[in-house]
Known about the structure:
- The protein has one domain (about 5-195): Peptidyl-tRNA hydrolase (Rossmann fold), CATH 3.40.50.
- About 35% of the residues lie in helices and about 25% in strands.
- The protein has helices spanning about 20-35, 70-75, 80-85, 115-125, 150-155, 165-185, 190-195; strands spanning about 5, 40, 45-55, 55-65, 90-100, 100-105, 130-140, 145.
- The longest helix is centred in the last third of the chain and has 24 residues, at about 165-185.
Amino acid sequence: MPYIIAGLGNPGQEYENTRHNTGRIILDALREEYSKETFAFSKKSNALVAVAKIGKEKVTLISPETFMNNSGKSIATLVKSVKAAEKLVVIYDDFNLPLGRIRISFNRSSGGHNGVESIIKAVKTEAFLRIRVGTAAETAKGLAKVPHGEEKIEKFILGPFKDDEIKALKKVSKTIIEAIAVLIKEGKEKAMSVYNAG
């Protein structure tokens, strides 16, 4: 069963460089690294899809063209069983982590993320891999400067990355590209122990 790597976000030019599109931005960096293909629109999945090769493994990259809270509809067209979901990797933004940090986890709740909630409902399991990518500013103590209140949160996640934040995101993209190679070649436990340490 091949790995399926999904990058979450919203379709459309107005959302391109927003924090909520972090998953899509990272997925594109992954495609540039591991695939000779450009993304092609799949009508069946309502998603941008490309095939990549990581080590000896053939991997499908998928970026839903639905809005974030309907991401599961696209992903369920490729992940058709609970067993298949074990090889699903979902990359998405997390404003509870400072920019530059990532967390790899397996079989967790959605943590209130609408895209992940949609996937859990669609594939009927929480047992899939997630790579949460921090988008928040960092406090002096190294914690995330979390926005509070629905309006502030929405404004923050739908706001564009600043130039210096884009540089930080490019740096973290390289880390995620490495982490995914470790995950696929050596397993999720190894990837978690190496990349969750920071």
